[in-house]
Every structure is written in C-alpha cells, then in structure tokens.
Write a structure and sequence with these properties.
single chain; about 75% helix; disordered N terminus
C-alpha cells in the first residue's frame, strides 16, 4: 500500500467528506455551463448574430481558458489550494451573469474570453484536488467526479430549459443562477482538502508543452472535446434552425446531451474497471459515430435529440481516460497531463468557430459531419489509452507494467 493510501486510511472521514465536497464543486462548475448553453440562442437573437459570428464568439471561452490555465498552478501554490479554488470558482459563477448584458458582438467576445479564463483556472484547481483525494483513497474516482460535473450541467440545462420555455429574460435567469451557484460553490469549497505545499517547493512552470508521448493521447482527447463542445454549444441552435423547433424543445436537446454524459461518467469507473479503457472508448466511439449520423440524417427533432444523446454517451469517459493515460506515458506525468489539457482545450477553441464557419458556407447539417468524423477518430485511436485504468485492482500511484510507464497522477 502506498503512503498516500495509508494517509487516506488513517483519516477516512475527512477524506470522504472532502470527496463529497469536491464532487459538489464539480457539479457547481457544470451547472454554470449548463445554464449558459441553453440561453445561447437567446443571446444570438438579441444581438442578431449570424452563425459565423456566433461561432467566433463561442471560440473565445476556449481562448481565455488556454491563456489562463497555466496560471492556475501558480495561484494555488501562492494562496493554497482551497483558497485558490474558492476564489476562482466564485469568479466563474459570478461571470455567468455578464454575457447576456453585453451590447454587441465585440463585447460578447471579450465577456466570453473572461468567462473561459475563469472556467479554465477553476477547472485546473478542482481537478488537482480531485487527484489528491483519489491518491489518498487509493482507488479511481475521476470519472465519477466528471460525472458530477455532467450532472451539474444537466441540472443547469434543465433550469435553462424551463426558463427558455417560459420565455424568461436570460439576463434575469442567468443573474439569479450566478448568485445561487456562487453561494453553493463557497459552501462546498469550505470542506475541500487544503494540502500543504512544501516551503521549499518551487512554483510550477508557467507553461507546459506536451511531450511527444502525449501527442497521440491528446489527439484522442481532441476528438472527444470537439464533439462535446460542438454538441453543447450548437445542439439547441441546430434544433431551432434545422428542425424548426420551439425554444423549449431546442433547449431540451442540450439537456438530453448532458443527461447521457452524466449517466456514462457516473458509471465510468465501474465500466472501465470491468472492460478496460481501450474497449470502453472503442465502443463509445461507435456509439458517438452512430449518434452523429443520426443527427445529420434525422427527419424530426426527436431523432435528432436521440442522436445528440448517443454522442454524449459515447464520448463521456474519454477525457478522464486521456489524462490518466498521459500520466502513465512518460517520466513527467504533470507535464504530460498539462500538455493533453492544452490540446483538448485547443479543440474547444476550434470547434465553435469551425462549426459556425462551415454552417455559414454550407449548413449546420454539414457542420455536424465533422463530429461524426471525430467520433470515428475515437474508434481508430482508442488503443493509445491502453493502461489508462491501470491493472485490475491497482490503486492510483501503482505503476503500470508497461515499458516506460510512470506513476499515475491523472487529473480529469
């Protein structure tokens, strides 16, 4: 048994409580995204944005996240993990109220840049604490934590669906959501772990380029995040513009996608433990491909919603497994994880703009052919995730018995 596991066993109650707290943090973070995603059509209509303009604006959250994520480690090092998470999560929640207030497209891009920056930094902070708890417990929990994020996104999108169906003003809806989630996040952060940094520890590097061993793993994560970002940002717009659905039905599509993502991630740790990372991702890629084909060929809104649900089911566990595989891919797990995170966030940067640009030139239906191609990439590239879940029964921190593998310190 590792020393980290022994530490967790010595103080089981605080660690279990911290696990529930960080799970709540993941849920709050997801709820911000879910609320925002369902009101994107409202913002587009209010600002009279074309598909291309909306796609460009929706790229700015990923731009902000990519620039700000390297700062999160230094912030946590300077202020402590708990304090850093509390502040960053509060900024992310409060900024939810800003995008619907902006007067024009340029202001929207700026607001979404800050929105993404706060999202990315709080994301890094909460995943780092998730890894710490996983290590102390001695068993994998990251897929479950990501499941809580998806559950939060589901709850947020459900609230957004109700607000859209009631034709509520998004400025009021998102302001109320921002206030409530800020309070819930602050309460949850009170109970998370606050691991001490060694006094002589140097601050983490400002940037971490991906080592070659992580590039292919990052490419698999790229495919999954492209499909996730495209579906989350564009599903409601697709239902409204292509299927001529009502605002409530369009918002319900985002809810269906979030629901399947949540269910698959919550069950992910058990499924991967039973069938292995490669088989799980390969089957998931097939499901996501079928979902993408269903979306682009659907004759009605119901089948399109089912297609989006299959996409969510298929891609759900890919990103946690990609980070786990990165941690085992070479002698510098932290650098590999940061590199894969950079690649996946780049996918989030490209997806909205690519979808909007292709929609302007052709149609949204053609745009979603990209998602189908990306899902096929998961089927082809699943093999690089071999060993992401470790050996059966292995605790986090147990080296995988593969050439060149290192200790697991994966984040999700």
């Amino acid at each position: 048994m590792s020393s980290a596991t022994e530490s967790g066993a010595a103080q089981p109650a605080p660690v279990r409580r911290a696990r529930m707290a960080v799970a709540a943090v993941f849920a709050v973070h997801g709820a911000v995204t879910g609320n925002f995603a369902t009101r994107i059509p409202w913002i587009q209509e209010r600002l009279d944005l074309s598909a291309g303009q909306l796609g460009l604006a929706l790229a700015f959250p990923a731009v902000g996240a990519s620039f700000a994520m390297p700062l999160a480690g230094r912030i946590s090092h300077r202020f402590g993990a708990r304090t850093a998470l509390r502040g960053l999560l509060a900024l992310w929640c409060l900024w939810l109220a800003v995008p619907p207030l902006v007067p024009g497209p340029v202001w929207l891009c700026g607001a979404l840049f800050v929105f993404g920056a706060t999202a990315g930094m709080s994301d890094v902070a909460m995943n780092a604490l998730g890894v710490e708890i996983e290590t102390r417990l001695g068993r994998p929990i990251m897929s479950g934590l990501h499941g809580m994020w998806s559950a939060g996104a589901l709850i947020g999108s459900a609230a957004g669906t109700v607000a859209a169906h009631a034709e509520a003003d998004a400025r009021l809806h998102l302001a109320l959501a921002a206030a409530a989630l800020t309070v819930l996040g602050a309460i949850a952060c009170h109970w998370v772990l606050d691991p001490d940094s060694a006094a002589e520890e140097h601050p983490p590097p400002r940037f971490a380029l991906p080592p070659r061993s992580a590039l292919i793993i990052g490419a698999v994560g790229f495919c999954a995040v492209f499909a996730e970002g495209a579906s989350l940002d564009w599903s409601a717009v697709y239902l409204r513009d292509v299927m001529d659905s009502s605002p409530g039905v369009a918002a319900a599509c985002t809810t269906a996608f979030s629901c399947t993502m949540a269910a698959a991630r919550l069950a992910g740790d058990a499924v991967v433990g039973r069938f292995g990372a490669v088989r799980t991702v390969r089957v998931g890629g097939v499901l996501a491909t079928l979902g993408g084909l269903g979306v682009v060929t659907a004759p009605n809104a119901g089948l399109a919603i089912a297609g989006f649900g299959l996409i969510g089911l298929g891609i759900a566990v890919v990103v946690p497994l990609a980070f786990a595989a990165a941690a085992r891919s070479g002698p510098a797990p932290s650098q590999a994880i940061a590199g894969v995170a950079t690649i996946t966030y780049t996918s989030g940067l490209i997806a909205p703009a690519a979808m909007g640009s292709i929609a302007d030139l052709t149609s949204l239906t053609v745009s979603f052919c990209l998602v189908t191609v990306g899902a096929l990439g998961l089927v082809a590239g699943a093999g690089v995730l071999r060993g992401a879940s470790g050996e059966p029964g292995a605790a986090p921190g147990t080296p995988v018995r593969e050439p060149g593998a290192s200790e697991r310190t994966a984040s999700g």
